[in-house]
Amino acid sequence: MGAAPIAEADFIRSVADALQYISVYHPPDFVAHLTRAYEREESPTARSAMAQILVNSRMSALGKRPMCQDTGTVNVFVKIGMQARIDSRRSLAELVDEAVAHAYTDPANPLRASIVADPIFERRNTGNNAPAVTHVEMVSGDRLKVTVAAKGGGSENKARFAALNPGASIVDWVLETVEGLGAGWCPPGLLGIGVGGTAEKAMILAKESLLAPIDMTDLLARGPASKLEELRIEIYEAVNALGIGAQGLGGLTTVLDVKIATHPTHAASKPVGLIPQCVADRHMSFVLDGSGPATFVPPSIDLWPQIALAGAGETRRVDLDRITPEEVAGWKAGETLLLSGRLLTGRDAAHKRMAAMLDRGEPLPVDLKGRAIYYVGPVDPIGDEVVGPAGPTTSTRMDPFTDQILAATGLLVMIGKAERGPAAIDAIRRHGAAYLIAVGGAAYLVSKAIRSSRVLALEDLGMEAIREFTVEDMPVTVAVDATGTSIHTTGPAGWRRPQIRAGGAPVSA
Ligand SMILES: O=C(O)C[C@H](O)C(=O)O
Protein backbone atom coordinates (compact mmCIF):
# COMPACT_ATOMS: atom_id res chain seq x y z
CA MET A 1 0.00 0.00 0.00
CA GLY A 2 1.40 3.47 -0.95
CA ALA A 3 1.82 6.40 1.43
CA ALA A 4 -1.21 8.55 2.31
CA PRO A 5 -1.83 11.40 -0.15
CA ILE A 6 -0.52 14.80 0.86
CA ALA A 7 -3.42 17.20 1.31
CA GLU A 8 -3.27 20.45 -0.65
CA ALA A 9 -4.04 22.43 2.54
CA ASP A 10 -1.16 20.74 4.42
CA PHE A 11 1.28 21.63 1.67
CA ILE A 12 0.15 25.28 1.55
CA ARG A 13 0.16 25.67 5.31
CA SER A 14 3.61 24.09 5.69
CA VAL A 15 5.19 26.34 3.05
CA ALA A 16 3.50 29.45 4.50
CA ASP A 17 4.56 28.59 8.07
CA ALA A 18 8.12 27.90 6.92
CA LEU A 19 8.27 31.30 5.20
CA GLN A 20 7.08 33.06 8.32
CA TYR A 21 9.61 31.10 10.40
CA ILE A 22 12.64 31.91 8.26
CA SER A 23 11.73 35.61 8.11
CA VAL A 24 12.45 35.91 11.84
CA TYR A 25 14.90 33.11 12.78
CA HIS A 26 18.40 32.79 11.37
CA PRO A 27 19.56 29.15 11.06
CA PRO A 28 21.61 28.13 14.16
CA ASP A 29 24.68 27.31 12.04
CA PHE A 30 24.64 30.84 10.61
CA VAL A 31 24.40 32.43 14.06
CA ALA A 32 27.26 30.24 15.34
CA HIS A 33 29.56 31.09 12.42
CA LEU A 34 28.75 34.82 12.55
CA THR A 35 29.36 34.86 16.30
CA ARG A 36 32.75 33.21 15.79
CA ALA A 37 33.66 35.74 13.09
CA TYR A 38 32.54 38.61 15.35
CA GLU A 39 34.66 37.35 18.23
CA ARG A 40 37.75 37.07 16.00
CA GLU A 41 37.28 40.31 14.05
CA GLU A 42 40.06 42.88 14.58
CA SER A 43 38.69 45.69 12.40
CA PRO A 44 36.66 47.93 14.74
CA THR A 45 34.23 49.10 12.04
CA ALA A 46 33.58 45.58 10.73
CA ARG A 47 33.21 44.28 14.29
CA SER A 48 30.70 46.98 15.09
CA ALA A 49 28.68 46.11 11.96
CA MET A 50 28.68 42.42 12.95
CA ALA A 51 27.58 43.35 16.47
CA GLN A 52 24.59 45.22 15.03
CA ILE A 53 23.70 42.27 12.78
CA LEU A 54 23.82 39.83 15.70
CA VAL A 55 21.81 42.13 17.96
CA ASN A 56 19.28 42.59 15.15
CA SER A 57 19.05 38.83 14.65
CA ARG A 58 18.29 38.27 18.34
CA MET A 59 15.76 41.12 18.37
CA SER A 60 13.97 39.60 15.36
CA ALA A 61 13.77 36.22 17.06
CA LEU A 62 12.36 37.81 20.23
CA GLY A 63 10.04 40.28 18.47
CA LYS A 64 9.01 37.86 15.70
CA ARG A 65 9.58 40.53 13.05
CA PRO A 66 11.67 40.28 9.88
CA MET A 67 15.44 40.45 10.28
CA CYS A 68 15.68 42.38 6.99
CA GLN A 69 13.28 44.76 5.24
CA ASP A 70 13.98 42.82 2.06
CA THR A 71 12.00 39.71 2.86
CA GLY A 72 13.16 38.28 -0.44
CA THR A 73 12.14 36.38 -3.52
CA VAL A 74 10.75 33.03 -2.46
CA ASN A 75 12.77 30.14 -3.89
CA VAL A 76 11.24 26.69 -3.40
CA PHE A 77 12.90 23.37 -4.19
CA VAL A 78 10.52 20.40 -4.13
CA LYS A 79 11.79 16.84 -4.41
CA ILE A 80 8.79 14.62 -5.12
CA GLY A 81 9.04 10.89 -4.45
CA MET A 82 8.00 8.86 -7.49
CA GLN A 83 5.38 7.15 -5.30
CA ALA A 84 4.17 10.26 -3.48
CA ARG A 85 0.78 11.75 -4.30
CA ILE A 86 -0.46 15.30 -3.76
CA ASP A 87 -4.22 15.51 -3.49
CA SER A 88 -4.78 18.58 -5.67
CA ARG A 89 -6.00 19.51 -9.13
CA ARG A 90 -3.80 22.58 -9.22
CA SER A 91 -0.17 22.86 -10.28
CA LEU A 92 2.55 22.74 -7.64
CA ALA A 93 3.57 26.32 -8.52
CA GLU A 94 -0.02 27.50 -7.85
CA LEU A 95 0.04 25.87 -4.41
CA VAL A 96 3.40 27.46 -3.62
CA ASP A 97 2.17 30.88 -4.75
CA GLU A 98 -0.93 30.60 -2.56
CA ALA A 99 1.36 29.80 0.39
CA VAL A 100 3.55 32.81 -0.44
CA ALA A 101 0.52 35.11 -0.58
CA HIS A 102 -0.67 33.78 2.83
CA ALA A 103 2.72 34.16 4.45
CA TYR A 104 3.49 37.63 3.11
CA THR A 105 0.10 39.10 4.02
CA ASP A 106 -0.10 37.48 7.47
CA PRO A 107 -1.49 40.29 9.69
CA ALA A 108 0.55 39.08 12.67
CA ASN A 109 3.82 39.55 10.80
CA PRO A 110 3.32 41.01 7.32
CA LEU A 111 6.39 40.59 5.13
CA ARG A 112 7.39 43.09 2.46
CA ALA A 113 5.97 42.54 -1.01
CA SER A 114 8.96 42.99 -3.31
CA ILE A 115 7.98 41.18 -6.51
CA VAL A 116 7.07 43.20 -9.60
CA ALA A 117 5.20 41.55 -12.44
CA ASP A 118 6.35 42.28 -15.95
CA PRO A 119 10.03 42.79 -15.21
CA ILE A 120 10.64 44.79 -18.41
CA PHE A 121 7.92 47.43 -18.72
CA GLU A 122 5.39 48.20 -15.97
CA ARG A 123 7.26 46.62 -13.04
CA ARG A 124 4.07 46.78 -10.96
CA ASN A 125 4.27 45.28 -7.46
CA THR A 126 2.09 42.15 -7.25
CA GLY A 127 1.20 43.07 -3.65
CA ASN A 128 1.69 39.66 -2.04
CA ASN A 129 5.24 38.67 -3.09
CA ALA A 130 3.97 35.93 -5.40
CA PRO A 131 4.94 34.35 -7.67
CA ALA A 132 7.80 32.34 -6.26
CA VAL A 133 10.52 30.59 -8.24
CA THR A 134 9.77 26.89 -7.86
CA HIS A 135 12.06 24.02 -8.87
CA VAL A 136 10.73 20.45 -8.98
CA GLU A 137 12.70 17.23 -9.12
CA MET A 138 11.32 13.68 -9.18
CA VAL A 139 13.25 11.39 -6.83
CA SER A 140 12.76 7.88 -5.50
CA GLY A 141 10.48 7.33 -2.49
CA ASP A 142 6.97 8.22 -1.39
CA ARG A 143 7.48 11.55 0.37
CA LEU A 144 7.92 15.20 -0.49
CA LYS A 145 11.03 17.08 0.60
CA VAL A 146 10.47 20.81 0.45
CA THR A 147 13.13 23.49 0.91
CA VAL A 148 12.08 27.12 1.09
CA ALA A 149 14.43 30.08 0.90
CA ALA A 150 13.81 33.84 0.85
CA LYS A 151 16.64 35.43 -1.12
CA GLY A 152 17.30 39.15 -0.82
CA GLY A 153 17.57 41.20 -4.01
CA GLY A 154 20.95 42.77 -3.16
CA SER A 155 22.79 39.46 -3.00
CA GLU A 156 20.83 37.93 -5.89
CA ASN A 157 21.92 40.90 -8.05
CA LYS A 158 25.53 39.83 -7.55
CA ALA A 159 25.03 36.35 -9.09
CA ARG A 160 27.64 35.76 -11.79
CA PHE A 161 28.28 33.14 -14.45
CA ALA A 162 31.31 32.24 -16.58
CA ALA A 163 31.90 29.63 -19.25
CA LEU A 164 35.51 28.93 -18.32
CA ASN A 165 37.99 27.01 -20.44
CA PRO A 166 38.43 23.50 -19.05
CA GLY A 167 41.95 24.33 -17.86
CA ALA A 168 41.10 27.70 -16.28
CA SER A 169 41.41 28.22 -12.53
CA ILE A 170 38.15 28.41 -10.58
CA VAL A 171 39.96 30.10 -7.70
CA ASP A 172 41.29 32.89 -9.93
CA TRP A 173 37.84 33.48 -11.41
CA VAL A 174 36.13 33.54 -8.02
CA LEU A 175 38.68 35.99 -6.60
CA GLU A 176 38.46 38.32 -9.56
CA THR A 177 34.66 38.13 -9.49
CA VAL A 178 34.23 38.69 -5.75
CA GLU A 179 36.58 41.71 -5.87
CA GLY A 180 34.33 43.23 -8.50
CA LEU A 181 31.07 42.64 -6.58
CA GLY A 182 31.48 45.42 -4.05
CA ALA A 183 29.59 45.09 -0.78
CA GLY A 184 26.01 45.37 -2.04
CA TRP A 185 25.57 41.65 -1.33
CA CYS A 186 25.85 42.42 2.40
CA PRO A 187 28.84 40.44 3.62
CA PRO A 188 29.72 38.61 5.79
CA GLY A 189 27.82 35.79 4.15
CA LEU A 190 28.35 32.72 2.04
CA LEU A 191 29.46 31.95 -1.49
CA GLY A 192 27.53 29.29 -3.41
CA ILE A 193 29.50 27.94 -6.36
CA GLY A 194 28.11 25.55 -8.96
CA VAL A 195 30.53 23.89 -11.40
CA GLY A 196 29.61 21.72 -14.39
CA GLY A 197 26.51 20.63 -16.25
CA THR A 198 25.30 23.45 -18.49
CA ALA A 199 24.92 27.19 -17.97
CA GLU A 200 21.56 26.94 -16.17
CA LYS A 201 22.60 23.82 -14.24
CA ALA A 202 25.69 25.59 -12.85
CA MET A 203 23.51 28.44 -11.56
CA ILE A 204 20.98 26.09 -9.93
CA LEU A 205 23.84 24.13 -8.34
CA ALA A 206 25.24 27.41 -6.96
CA LYS A 207 21.86 28.33 -5.47
CA GLU A 208 21.23 24.86 -4.03
CA SER A 209 24.72 24.67 -2.55
CA LEU A 210 23.78 27.59 -0.27
CA LEU A 211 21.12 25.41 1.36
CA ALA A 212 23.64 22.92 2.80
CA PRO A 213 24.63 23.24 6.48
CA ILE A 214 27.36 25.81 7.22
CA ASP A 215 30.29 23.74 8.49
CA MET A 216 33.48 25.70 7.75
CA THR A 217 34.48 25.81 11.44
CA ASP A 218 34.38 22.00 11.64
CA LEU A 219 36.06 21.61 8.27
CA LEU A 220 38.94 23.87 9.31
CA ALA A 221 39.28 21.99 12.60
CA ARG A 222 39.31 18.47 11.11
CA GLY A 223 41.08 19.29 7.82
CA PRO A 224 39.93 18.48 4.27
CA ALA A 225 38.99 14.89 3.41
CA SER A 226 38.58 15.44 -0.35
CA LYS A 227 39.82 17.65 -3.18
CA LEU A 228 36.50 19.50 -3.09
CA GLU A 229 36.96 20.31 0.60
CA GLU A 230 40.51 21.48 -0.14
CA LEU A 231 39.09 23.79 -2.80
CA ARG A 232 36.44 25.14 -0.39
CA ILE A 233 39.12 26.02 2.16
CA GLU A 234 41.37 27.55 -0.48
CA ILE A 235 38.59 29.83 -1.76
CA TYR A 236 37.44 30.66 1.78
CA GLU A 237 40.93 31.76 2.80
CA ALA A 238 41.72 33.56 -0.45
CA VAL A 239 38.43 35.53 -0.44
CA ASN A 240 38.86 36.51 3.20
CA ALA A 241 42.43 37.63 2.42
CA LEU A 242 40.95 40.22 0.03
CA GLY A 243 40.14 42.22 3.17
CA ILE A 244 36.63 43.29 2.01
CA GLY A 245 35.15 42.58 5.44
CA ALA A 246 31.67 43.05 6.89
CA GLN A 247 29.66 45.53 4.80
CA GLY A 248 32.82 46.20 2.72
CA LEU A 249 34.34 48.21 5.57
CA GLY A 250 37.59 46.24 5.60
CA GLY A 251 38.21 43.32 7.94
CA LEU A 252 39.16 39.70 8.43
CA THR A 253 35.89 38.01 7.46
CA THR A 254 34.02 38.46 4.19
CA VAL A 255 32.73 34.90 3.91
CA LEU A 256 31.68 32.53 6.69
CA ASP A 257 31.70 29.50 4.38
CA VAL A 258 32.12 28.55 0.73
CA LYS A 259 29.84 25.89 -0.73
CA ILE A 260 30.57 24.05 -3.98
CA ALA A 261 28.28 21.68 -5.88
CA THR A 262 29.29 19.90 -9.09
CA HIS A 263 27.80 17.97 -12.00
CA PRO A 264 29.48 16.18 -14.93
CA THR A 265 29.97 18.42 -17.93
CA HIS A 266 30.96 18.49 -21.61
CA ALA A 267 34.66 17.86 -22.44
CA ALA A 268 34.86 21.35 -23.96
CA SER A 269 33.23 23.15 -21.01
CA LYS A 270 33.63 24.29 -17.42
CA PRO A 271 30.53 26.38 -16.62
CA VAL A 272 30.79 28.10 -13.23
CA GLY A 273 28.01 29.91 -11.38
CA LEU A 274 28.55 32.02 -8.27
CA ILE A 275 25.74 33.25 -6.03
CA PRO A 276 26.50 35.11 -2.81
CA GLN A 277 24.26 34.81 0.24
CA CYS A 278 23.84 37.96 2.33
CA VAL A 279 23.58 38.14 6.13
CA ALA A 280 19.83 37.56 5.83
CA ASP A 281 20.41 33.82 5.37
CA ARG A 282 16.88 32.39 5.33
CA HIS A 283 16.06 28.82 4.42
CA MET A 284 14.71 25.59 5.86
CA SER A 285 13.64 22.11 4.74
CA PHE A 286 10.82 19.84 5.80
CA VAL A 287 9.30 16.54 4.73
CA LEU A 288 5.62 15.80 4.04
CA ASP A 289 4.47 12.17 4.11
CA GLY A 290 0.69 12.54 4.13
CA SER A 291 0.40 12.56 7.93
CA GLY A 292 -0.31 16.31 8.20
CA PRO A 293 1.43 19.67 7.91
CA ALA A 294 5.02 20.23 9.01
CA THR A 295 5.56 21.88 12.38
CA PHE A 296 8.35 24.27 13.25
CA VAL A 297 9.79 24.75 16.72
CA PRO A 298 11.34 28.16 17.52
CA PRO A 299 15.02 27.93 18.48
CA SER A 300 16.16 28.65 22.04
CA ILE A 301 17.07 32.30 22.55
CA ASP A 302 20.32 31.04 24.15
CA LEU A 303 21.54 30.46 20.61
CA TRP A 304 22.37 34.16 20.30
CA PRO A 305 25.24 35.91 22.07
CA GLN A 306 24.15 38.83 24.23
CA ILE A 307 26.01 41.81 22.85
CA ALA A 308 25.81 45.32 24.30
CA LEU A 309 26.12 47.88 21.52
CA ALA A 310 28.56 50.73 22.18
CA GLY A 311 26.95 53.88 23.63
CA ALA A 312 26.90 57.22 21.84
CA GLY A 313 29.96 58.54 23.73
CA GLU A 314 31.53 61.48 21.92
CA THR A 315 29.65 60.69 18.68
CA ARG A 316 28.66 63.76 16.66
CA ARG A 317 24.92 64.46 16.76
CA VAL A 318 23.29 65.86 13.63
CA ASP A 319 20.02 67.79 13.50
CA LEU A 320 18.60 66.87 10.08
CA ASP A 321 16.21 69.83 10.18
CA ARG A 322 19.14 72.28 10.24
CA ILE A 323 21.96 70.76 8.21
CA THR A 324 24.03 73.17 6.15
CA PRO A 325 26.64 72.63 3.42
CA GLU A 326 29.26 73.96 5.88
CA GLU A 327 28.34 71.33 8.47
CA VAL A 328 28.37 68.53 5.87
CA ALA A 329 31.82 69.70 4.71
CA GLY A 330 33.12 69.05 8.25
CA TRP A 331 32.14 65.37 8.32
CA LYS A 332 35.02 62.94 7.77
CA ALA A 333 34.82 59.52 6.09
CA GLY A 334 34.71 56.82 8.77
CA GLU A 335 33.09 59.06 11.40
CA THR A 336 29.93 57.85 13.18
CA LEU A 337 26.96 60.25 13.30
CA LEU A 338 23.71 60.10 15.22
CA LEU A 339 20.92 61.54 13.09
CA SER A 340 17.77 63.15 14.51
CA GLY A 341 14.99 65.02 12.73
CA ARG A 342 13.16 64.61 9.45
CA LEU A 343 14.47 62.23 6.82
CA LEU A 344 13.03 61.63 3.35
CA THR A 345 13.00 58.17 1.80
CA GLY A 346 13.23 57.14 -1.84
CA ARG A 347 14.79 54.27 -3.75
CA ASP A 348 14.89 52.78 -7.27
CA ALA A 349 11.43 53.49 -8.65
CA ALA A 350 11.16 56.92 -6.97
CA HIS A 351 14.54 57.95 -8.38
CA LYS A 352 13.53 56.83 -11.86
CA ARG A 353 10.31 58.87 -11.62
CA MET A 354 12.08 61.93 -10.22
CA ALA A 355 14.72 61.81 -12.97
CA ALA A 356 11.98 61.59 -15.62
CA MET A 357 10.21 64.60 -14.06
CA LEU A 358 13.44 66.60 -14.07
CA ASP A 359 14.05 65.61 -17.72
CA ARG A 360 10.58 66.98 -18.58
CA GLY A 361 11.23 70.18 -16.62
CA GLU A 362 8.49 69.34 -14.08
CA PRO A 363 8.72 70.17 -10.35
CA LEU A 364 9.42 67.23 -8.04
CA PRO A 365 6.66 66.10 -5.64
CA VAL A 366 9.00 66.83 -2.68
CA ASP A 367 11.52 69.59 -2.11
CA LEU A 368 14.94 67.96 -1.60
CA LYS A 369 16.86 71.18 -0.98
CA GLY A 370 19.10 70.89 2.07
CA ARG A 371 17.53 67.52 2.96
CA ALA A 372 18.74 63.97 3.54
CA ILE A 373 17.28 61.01 1.65
CA TYR A 374 17.35 57.41 2.89
CA TYR A 375 17.38 54.63 0.28
CA VAL A 376 14.87 52.26 1.87
CA GLY A 377 11.72 50.27 1.21
CA PRO A 378 10.32 49.41 4.66
CA VAL A 379 8.13 46.57 5.87
CA ASP A 380 4.59 47.65 6.83
CA PRO A 381 4.10 48.32 10.56
CA ILE A 382 2.02 46.27 13.00
CA GLY A 383 0.64 47.09 16.46
CA ASP A 384 2.29 50.18 17.90
CA GLU A 385 5.17 50.23 15.40
CA VAL A 386 5.40 53.40 13.28
CA VAL A 387 7.20 51.45 10.59
CA GLY A 388 8.35 47.86 10.18
CA PRO A 389 11.99 46.82 9.70
CA ALA A 390 13.64 49.48 7.55
CA GLY A 391 17.28 48.79 6.67
CA PRO A 392 19.20 50.44 3.84
CA THR A 393 19.18 49.25 0.24
CA THR A 394 22.17 49.02 -2.14
CA SER A 395 23.13 52.57 -3.10
CA THR A 396 24.95 51.86 -6.37
CA ARG A 397 21.53 51.39 -8.00
CA MET A 398 20.91 55.08 -7.34
CA ASP A 399 24.32 56.09 -8.83
CA PRO A 400 22.98 56.80 -12.34
CA PHE A 401 20.64 59.47 -10.87
CA THR A 402 22.98 61.00 -8.31
CA ASP A 403 24.62 63.80 -10.27
CA GLN A 404 21.33 64.93 -11.81
CA ILE A 405 19.46 64.93 -8.48
CA LEU A 406 22.25 66.68 -6.55
CA ALA A 407 22.62 69.33 -9.26
CA ALA A 408 18.91 69.97 -9.80
CA THR A 409 17.61 69.85 -6.24
CA GLY A 410 20.28 70.85 -3.71
CA LEU A 411 19.94 67.52 -1.86
CA LEU A 412 22.77 67.37 0.71
CA VAL A 413 22.88 63.88 2.18
CA MET A 414 22.20 60.34 0.97
CA ILE A 415 21.97 57.27 3.21
CA GLY A 416 22.16 53.68 2.00
CA LYS A 417 24.46 50.71 2.16
CA ALA A 418 27.74 49.65 0.52
CA GLU A 419 30.02 51.60 -1.79
CA ARG A 420 29.28 54.28 -4.41
CA GLY A 421 30.77 54.09 -7.92
CA PRO A 422 33.39 56.56 -9.22
CA ALA A 423 30.88 58.81 -11.04
CA ALA A 424 28.65 59.12 -7.95
CA ILE A 425 31.66 59.84 -5.71
CA ASP A 426 32.78 62.53 -8.13
CA ALA A 427 29.27 64.05 -8.07
CA ILE A 428 29.23 63.98 -4.24
CA ARG A 429 32.58 65.82 -4.17
CA ARG A 430 31.59 68.41 -6.79
CA HIS A 431 28.29 69.20 -5.05
CA GLY A 432 29.75 69.25 -1.52
CA ALA A 433 27.34 66.48 -0.44
CA ALA A 434 27.92 63.40 1.73
CA TYR A 435 26.97 59.73 1.59
CA LEU A 436 26.27 57.88 4.84
CA ILE A 437 25.69 54.18 5.50
CA ALA A 438 23.54 52.21 7.90
CA VAL A 439 24.18 48.49 8.43
CA GLY A 440 22.53 46.28 5.80
CA GLY A 441 20.88 43.30 7.47
CA ALA A 442 20.16 45.21 10.72
CA ALA A 443 16.73 46.43 9.59
CA TYR A 444 14.70 45.74 12.74
CA LEU A 445 17.33 47.46 14.89
CA VAL A 446 17.44 50.47 12.51
CA SER A 447 13.65 50.78 12.65
CA LYS A 448 13.82 51.39 16.40
CA ALA A 449 15.36 54.83 15.72
CA ILE A 450 12.33 55.84 13.59
CA ARG A 451 9.72 57.75 15.58
CA SER A 452 7.18 58.58 12.86
CA SER A 453 6.54 57.76 9.22
CA ARG A 454 4.14 59.13 6.62
CA VAL A 455 3.87 58.74 2.88
CA LEU A 456 4.58 62.06 1.13
CA ALA A 457 4.43 61.19 -2.56
CA LEU A 458 4.34 58.47 -5.24
CA GLU A 459 2.09 56.32 -3.05
CA ASP A 460 1.39 53.98 -5.97
CA LEU A 461 4.97 52.70 -5.63
CA GLY A 462 4.07 50.81 -2.43
CA MET A 463 7.17 50.14 -0.38
CA GLU A 464 9.08 52.32 -2.88
CA ALA A 465 6.93 55.43 -2.22
CA ILE A 466 8.56 58.62 -0.92
CA ARG A 467 8.06 58.84 2.85
CA GLU A 468 9.11 61.21 5.57
CA PHE A 469 10.54 59.60 8.69
CA THR A 470 11.30 61.39 11.93
CA VAL A 471 14.35 59.71 13.42
CA GLU A 472 16.06 59.98 16.78
CA ASP A 473 19.71 59.08 17.22
CA MET A 474 19.87 56.92 14.11
CA PRO A 475 23.49 55.67 13.95
CA VAL A 476 25.21 55.98 10.55
CA THR A 477 28.79 56.10 9.29
CA VAL A 478 30.15 58.69 6.85
CA ALA A 479 31.05 56.54 3.84
CA VAL A 480 31.88 59.23 1.27
CA ASP A 481 32.69 62.68 2.59
CA ALA A 482 32.56 65.98 0.75
CA THR A 483 36.22 65.58 -0.32
CA GLY A 484 35.28 62.34 -2.13
CA THR A 485 37.13 60.05 0.31
CA SER A 486 35.38 56.66 0.48
CA ILE A 487 35.71 54.21 3.36
CA HIS A 488 34.94 51.38 0.95
CA THR A 489 38.28 52.12 -0.72
CA THR A 490 40.39 52.99 2.31
CA GLY A 491 38.92 50.26 4.60
CA PRO A 492 39.54 47.08 2.56
CA ALA A 493 42.97 48.35 1.41
CA GLY A 494 44.15 48.29 5.03
CA TRP A 495 42.97 44.72 5.64
CA ARG A 496 44.11 43.05 2.42
CA ARG A 497 46.53 40.18 3.03
CA PRO A 498 48.81 38.36 0.56
CA GLN A 499 47.06 35.57 -1.33
CA ILE A 500 48.54 32.15 -0.61
CA ARG A 501 47.51 29.20 -2.78
CA ALA A 502 47.06 25.68 -1.45
CA GLY A 503 50.62 24.34 -1.51
CA GLY A 504 52.13 27.72 -0.63
CA ALA A 505 52.38 29.45 -4.03
CA PRO A 506 51.12 33.08 -4.28
CA VAL A 507 47.93 33.47 -6.34
CA SER A 508 48.59 35.18 -9.65
CA ALA A 509 45.17 36.84 -10.05
O1 LIG B 1 15.17 45.72 -1.57
C1 LIG B 1 15.85 45.98 -0.55
O2 LIG B 1 15.35 46.43 0.45
C2 LIG B 1 17.32 45.81 -0.43
C3 LIG B 1 18.03 44.84 -1.26
O3 LIG B 1 17.99 43.59 -0.65
C4 LIG B 1 19.47 45.21 -1.35
O4 LIG B 1 20.28 44.54 -0.70
O5 LIG B 1 19.80 46.14 -2.06
Provide an overview of this structure.
The protein has 509 residues and is α/β, with parallel strands linked by helices. The chain has three domains: 1-26 and 67-151, no CATH class; 153-288, no CATH class; 316-492, fumarase (Alpha-Beta Barrel). The chain has helices at 8-24, 28-40, 44-63, 92-104, 153-156, 170-181, 199-209, 216-222, 227-241, 325-329, 348-359, 399-409, 422-430, 443-447, 487-495; strands at residues 6-7, 73-81, 86-87, 116-117, 124-125, 133-139, 144-151, 160-164, 189-197, 255-265, 270-277, 283-288, 316-319, 336-345, 372-374, 413-416, 434-437, 450-457, 466-480. Strands 14-15-16-17-19 form a five-stranded mixed β-barrel. Helix 11 links the parallel strand 14 and strand 15. Helix 6 runs parallel beside helix 9. The radius of gyration is 23 Å and the shape is globular. Residues 69-70, 114, 152-154, 184, 186, 377, 393-394, 440 line the site of (2S)-2-hydroxybutanedioic acid. (2S)-2-hydroxybutanedioic acid binds at residues 69-70, 114, 152-154, 184, 186, 377, 393-394, 440.
